[in-house]
Amino acid sequence: MGRWTLHLSVGLGLLAVLLTCCYAEVNYCFASRAKSCTECLQTGIGCAYCPDETFEGPRCDLQENILAHGCGAAAVITAQGSMDVNSNQQINMRLQKSQVSPQKVTMALLPGEEKLMDVEVFAPTKGPLDLYILMDFSNSMADDLDNLKRMGKELASLVNTLSNDYTIGFGKFVDKVIEPQTDMRPEKLSQPWPNSDPPFSFQNVIKLTNNSDYFTNKLQKERISGNLDAPEGGFDAILQAAVCRDKIGWRDHSTHLLVFSTESAFHYETDGANVLSGILPRNDEKCHLDSNDKYTEDTNQDYPSIPTLVRVLGKHNIIPIFAVTNHSYTYYKKLQQYFPIAEVGLLQEDSSNILQVMETAFKNIRSKTSIRAEEKPKAFVTEFLRTSGDVAQFGDFNFKPGEIGKLKMRLTAKRMNDEQPVCQMDRDEKEGTMKVKPTTFNAGVNVEASVFCPVCECEKTPSLKAARCSGNGDLVCGKCQCYGGWLGSFCNCSEADSVKSVSQCIAPSETEPCSGRGDCKACGTCVCYNPEQFEGPYCQFDKTQCPRYGGFLCNDRGSCVMGRCACTEGWGGNSCECPKSNKTCEDTKGGICNGRGKCVCGRCECQNSGHDLTSTCEPQFLASYEVCEATRSCVQCQTWKTGEKKKDEECKTCPFKSYTVKELKEREKVLDSCTFRDEDDDCTYHYTVDNPKDPSVKDLDVQVLEKKECPPASLLWLLPLLLFLLLLLALLLLCCWKYCACCKSCWQSCLALLPCCRRGRMVGFKEDEYLLRQSLLTSDHLDTPMVRTGPPKGTDVVRWKVTDNVHRAPNHPQALIKPNPKETIQFPVSLRLNRLFSENLSRPESRDAEQLRKEVADNLNEVYKQIPGAQKVQKTSFRMQRNAGKRQDYTIMDTVLAAPRASYPDIVKLTEKNVQSGNVRDLKVVPGYYTVATDREATGAIEFQEGVESVDVHVPLFVKDEDDDKKQLQVEAIDVPLGIAEIGKRLVNITIIKEHASSVFSFLQPAYTYSRQDGVANIPISREIIEDGRTQVTYRTRDLTAKDKKDYVTVEGDLTYGPGETQKTVPVRLLELSEKDGLLEDKQVKQFVMDLSNPRQGAKLGRYPRTTVTIADQPEPSVMMFKKGTQNFTTSDPTYTIPVVRTRNQDSPATVKWRTKKAQRFELSGPLKFGPGETEKNIVIDPKSHPGPIQPETFQLELFDPSSNAAVGDRKTTLVNVTDGITKSPEIAQMQEKGFTNQKASSPSGYLPAPGYPKAKATGPRNIHLNWDPPPGNPMGYKVKYWIYGDPEKDAQVLDVKTPQAELTNLYPYCDYEMRVCGYNAMGDGYDTDVVTCQTLEDGPGEPGRLAFNVISPTVTQLSWAEPAETNGNITAYEVIYTPIDDEMKPVGAAKKVKIDNPKKRMLLIENLQSAQTYQYKVRAKNSVGWGPFRDATINLASQPARPLSIPIIPDVPIVDAEAGDEYDSYLMYSNEVMKSPAGSKTPSVSGDDYTMNGKWDQNFLFPGGSGTRNMSASSSPMSTLSSNYRGAGGSFTTETTTTYMSGAGGSRRQDMVGGMHTSEVIMRKRSENRGYTDENIRDSIVMGDVSSKFPDLSGFGYTGMQSSSHSQFSYNLPRSPRARTQSSDINEALYNLDRVLQDARLSPGVPDTPSRLVFSALGPTALKVSWQEPHCEKDIQSYCVLYQLLNGGEVKRINVTNPAENSVIIQDLLPNHSYLFKVKAQSQEGWGPEREGVITIESAVDPKSPLSPMPGSPFTLSTPSAPGPLVFTALSPDSLQLSWDKPRKPNGDILGYVVTCEQLHGGGDVRSFQVNGNSAETSLTVPNLTENVPYKFKVQARTTQGFGPEREGIITIESQDGSSLSQYNSQSLVRREVFQMPTEVSTRTNVSHTMLNDPYFSDGMMMTSQHTETSGMMTQITKEVVQRSVMGGTTVTKKMFYES
């Protein structure tokens, strides 16, 4: 009985879940599986417990469920929270002070419960105000102080206007009085500047006072001071001003404002804790002012951090106002974002506007109110609502001073806190007093909040050894709690005595106990292996196997319970795919399906109609060529009984009724106005179409004008006369022809004799001349009107031509240059197509444009292939041309044909011939129009139709950069090949004046795409500065398919650019979709354009004057295509079945049309409709239903015209081959007709046909279930082949099964597989089925990649990690947990969790950690399945080296304060710059796309005062901190990078490593090449030199030639394997030696050669060191000469070096960001030798107001257009590194690859060369087999089509003091190197695999990474990478690396 009772209770419980899930997404009461009454009530609000002994349902559930299951209402135990208002004094508006109501509230909330509380706040119009001014007293602020002294009275007057009750105070600050912040020389300590005070950190000068005279007089006595570095110590001053409450004089009930005035950036935490100052202790946040109100601890503790300032100022209700100058404005704007309320004002350079800044800031602060809940316990969540119930984002309200503001606070108690029940939290985390107040108030509502965790009274009085519990347990709250050894609901099953018969665990119709998914325990109880996946008394239900919709389990709208979908409220259907509301079926009138259909499952099922309908059964005119075309035939048949539907039965199918009227409505007032000619009587009729005004009417309102417009009545008696006149005219023409054969003029003169033609017609250009300014041109063509005079009867075609640069005389230098007739140029070609233009054709990505573009290309390519050397047409686009007569609505096609220049006449003739015929192959064109152009001339034709008097000629202008300042084009009308018109004004001249613009405006790209969810489209407008100054340009948006105020808000205006400004952004607000639009299936792509116009002050428009903005909110389209490219059938097949498959967006219906092509007996077509969820449909052709015998043939099927939410895929056509075939048995024929077999099945050879209907279904992340129908015959078994999608089928695995189903196991999660099945018998394997595809389900992700720490200070670290190697799905979030631990790995404090919802943000900055405390850090990833395992690491920051002195940065990464409460987290924010690293990168995840290249973080954008780049790299360990290389204005600094390898539990340990730390140091130093110059100041180096002599032969990989003096030395770094010397290498060496001889012969004996190489090294933004190598010379060198000048011209400066031993000079007077040409040459007694040239630029940040002045301490780098970017070295191991560089900005020619050389700096060893092919933006190379403690020199240069570019050089050393191995495995040969001979062209493919080894020194072993580089040769490298999984014990192995710049 116990077993059945148990199963019954479990079944009832599952039934309860099913019932509950029908209306709620989660029933947490039941899901908690509460074991007691108390645990049940503490689960959350709404949970109830039934203590009734006889109750058999789930005891813990929602109260309504318990009552529904039969529990008595009186017995149910529940709990309720409470809220009491303890103090509530009404606000008194007469009191001029801040007030809130109520003042005190007590709340006790159940877990999950929320309560609303009304709050009123009052801010007086002039309440009490405390204003404290904190001013920078560094020397640069001297004029600011003088101005403030003069404005003392005005300042007091201003404060008086702000408040009637005010105090004002003053403080000053400079910086820490310690090096390097302050000059510590005694004379400078007493007076750093003339007439100045000694330096100090902070001093409170004037305590807050209401005596304005005292304030003014005291201020006059102040003098300026000074310090050294640009950033100031203002953060020290702010913190002291906040915490020294009494000394400053802050009052309790006043608004506290702190005005912070400076022109410099700021120091912050860890800037004091550097190796120079040596200040290590953190700021203690206490007051340290002495009796003179001076800060005393400035040299004893560090600056405060940003989070510390935010917290301290918030705690003391102080609002900062940063009044700063333009130099540091951007950094304080970024700092402002971290404060809940703060203002930033822009000061003039002398602070003359400080009063205006303060007044504006105060008004801004008073205008916004931000409500916060301070000191909130962790278990609570607060939200603030407006009185309307809307949540106020960030607590912002618009309350006016002097009025009472009302709001609501919603306080919610959490149910769970990071998977921990809230009642299990610590007491101080679930109860406390929070203060709810505006940020500007001191007063607030004190809310005593606590989580109410009820305890059941019945648990205090249990019934011991109750009879109901068989005496084997106690009855507690109606439930038996069994003693040990007893089981069951009544404790009646003995665990020891029960017979463990597995039969009790076997469900009916099953054979395995617990369905094979669990363990069978005593008393027949099944314990499922994975309760999160399997459920039921026999574990028979899988929670992942409910029906799916769109790939989502239960459509993501329900839960899988008991094998069925329990849908959430508002959804139904087997897979919860059907919305229960009809909102998605509402039409534009608010009705359902337009009255023409039924709403089924959220979609309209429309009645059959003659028109295409929308998804809501409304006419879809866009699909029927617009309204008029769609209604034309019905109007004709209903009104005139004519047209296509004149038959009654056809006319009755029209979906509307038209009626006649005497007068039509105006066109603007209707949907469309239509005009057509009736073919039956040649009359014209007019009608209008409009939507009905009555919403209840579903038909269109069609009004027809009752009278047609007909030509005059015909006069039959005129017919004979007309015939006679025609005969007479023919006779006259014959006579003229006889006497004027082939003479056009005579022919025309004869026509002129006729009375009707006597006056004649004239055609010619309208104007004589056009004068254009190039800067105002918006097009590269000019529409030039040509007019026709005389009788406009008949048609005239006029040929024209245009010639460029006719202003040049025949002897002009450019005119004398004859072009190469064989060169391939582009010929723009334009034709007018015989089809109307539609809006879709203007969008290149539209389906109509794509189809027409392909049709044009197919036909034109076929025609122009007659031209020798012609290539395929490209860049095809479509447009309309206005003023084109009756043809202006037709489509003009523009395309480009590439062909030899000499073929121009042939292209013109061929084009004209095809155009006049009206057909370009199968493409219909309009005769009389074409244009063919080159780069200097063009010809074409235009057509005057009858009645047309003016037509535009679309003349190309040939605008080029090399044009003359004033050029002239001539357009000429050549002749009239068709028509009788004569040419009048034959010529027109076009003059283009090329103005030298001062600026060029352009969009950065021609199109942008923004997501509607972004809310705003920020469109950048770029300005290229040619001559600096102020300029303007106008911008304006315009609708395309996106509509103003529906999709976006239109903007227009002028942008003003000041001097130095190069880019501005125009924000365009994007509007959300309406609810109805958001639910529509077929949504049009929304686009609008933004145009630039009217550039002023000498500017012009550039490359992109228009950009198209696409608003992306449409789901990706379905893709439909044929399943196979070829289909084979026989003549005996009863039908031809051709499958069509659909991928992507399978949830919506889609349609595509099909048709046959080139079939002999039939021409078929039809639609193919896919329903929701359908992925495959068949086209079935019955060959017997068509006339004629069935014969072998080949024809095509084509897919076309997909619906708007779909597209046709790659296989848009399939080839159908029908061959002779024998008659099959009826059984085989029937199988084949149903699709069970393929064409091979009919073979009579005895082989089995293919099995039928194979179906694959993923049953888990590693399992796929495949089943099929058995073929006819008696198969002995089946063979299943399966392989990963994309792999070759030959690599498939084969599974042999005996039944028609198979279970594929051990697969990869979230992976696509392909499968085939065949049967086999005694004859062998039968025929295979078609390929079946299936994707396995997602699985939990693996652990993240190795953790990396950038140790900023002992209390601040930057943690980053890599994406899991096995994502097993799409990563959606990361979680970081860090916990303080002791030496035994036990927690000694609370763990802090941080969830990062953006998977791209794989970095966290953690501040305010406990100093000298060891922390354990854990990171895990999440996908749709759930959380994966943790990757953990342990580190003590105090043991790591700190970073050097820096200047202030605000990191663009998530910041977490380890000491702050949750109220701090609520307003900290992520920056928009997402930090990530490329997949597969060996460097930690440290930065984003904008600032990362090969692991290098270029932080120049963060350094306001002075820094260089920050190069972050890591070794291959899991615990690598990042290396940093900072540079300030005074030099460079060195930082250490720590790499920690941590060992864990394992096997035997080496004796010398137990319990200790084993350390080795790896040091990478980058030295300058010349040791005679100070190393510290060298930032970057670029080398320029001869290349031809260095790389004469690259046919062998690593083969290098080095030039030394006048002879050559060659070496190989390949293994000394036998190698045959090829003929080509002999020739190359001979040519090289010949070249050297010729070069030597060109120089006189004794004259020096060219210096072989130049080396440029940057010393600063305006200083450069130039070095060179001594050239070869037979006589002694006497001197050198260095010449340099600006690249764009200017004074040539000369430096003579008279000492021949010196081979370098330092130049100090360069301009930043200007390119210089340097020349170096040598002199001997025989004279000067040739020069070596080099072009170089020092790039640096400059003052916007003075572009030639670099910013103090700004970063600088060398660049040359053709040199690779700076070299970045990343250590991989002690003997290998990765070298990375960037692509040259302006290479000389196209890049083919790079040559990298590596050699020991001081000689010895081979010179190794590497060739890297490709042209990627970022390139890297792994260099193995290096030697420790040996400096290496690396050189990188680009190999281009023009030769070799300049070198980029770097010197690096890997030094190690560790000679021992980490593990016994180091004695094994873990590194295998195989180098083969490789040709010059090396193409590589890299495959990376991982293998785990069991190393006793590491808890989870090590990972071996093998990289295989495949080419014609092979180079294989295996490197060992240690991966730390967990830490057991205290043994650590530490590797330290540091970089010296």
Name a few traits of the molecule.
eleven-stranded mixed β-sheet; 13% helix; globular; 1941 residues; disordered N terminus; mainly beta; disordered C terminus
Question: Topology, please?
Answer:
Elements: H1 2-21, H2 28-31, H3 37-41, E1 47-49, E2 60-62, H4 63-68, E3 82-87, E4 99-101, E5 104-109, E6 114-122, E7 129-136, H5 142-150, H6 152-162, E8 166-173, H7 186-190, E9 202-209, H8 212-220, H9 234-243, H10 245-248, E10 255-262, H11 306-315, E11 318-324, H12 329-336, E12 343-346, H13 354-367, E13 369-374, E14 380-385, E15 396-397, E16 404-413, E17 416-417, E18 420-421, H14 427-430, E19 431-438, E20 445-451, E21 473-476, E22 479-482, E23 486-487, E24 493-494, E25 518-521, E26 525-528, E27 534-535, E28 541-542, E29 548-549, E30 552-553, E31 558-561, E32 564-567, E33 571-572, E34 578-579, E35 597-600, E36 603-606, H15 626-640, H16 648-651, E37 658-661, E38 672-678, E39 683-690, E40 701-705, H17 718-739, H18 744-753, E41 762-765, E42 769-773, E43 781-789, E44 796-803, H19 813-816, E45 824-836, H20 847-864, E46 874-879, E47 890-900, H21 904-917, E48 919-920, E49 923-933, E50 937-944, E51 950-956, E52 966-978, E53 982-983, E54 987-993, E55 999-1003, E56 1007-1011, E57 1016-1025, E58 1031-1039, E59 1052-1057, ...
Parallel strand pairs: 5-20, 7-8, 7-10, 10-11, 11-12, 37-40, 41-53, 42-54, 55-62, 56-63, 64-71, 65-72, 81-91, 85-88, 95-121
Antiparallel strand pairs: 1-2, 3-5, 4-6, 6-16, 8-9, 13-15, 13-19, 14-16, 17-18, 19-20, 21-22, 23-24, 25-26, 27-28, 29-30, 31-32, 33-34, 35-36, 38-39, 39-40, 41-43, 43-51, 44-50, 44-52, 45-47, 45-49, 46-47, 48-49, 49-50, 52-54, 55-57, 57-60, 58-59, 58-61, 61-63, 64-66, 66-69, 67-68, 67-70, 70-72, ...
Helix pairs in contact: 17-18
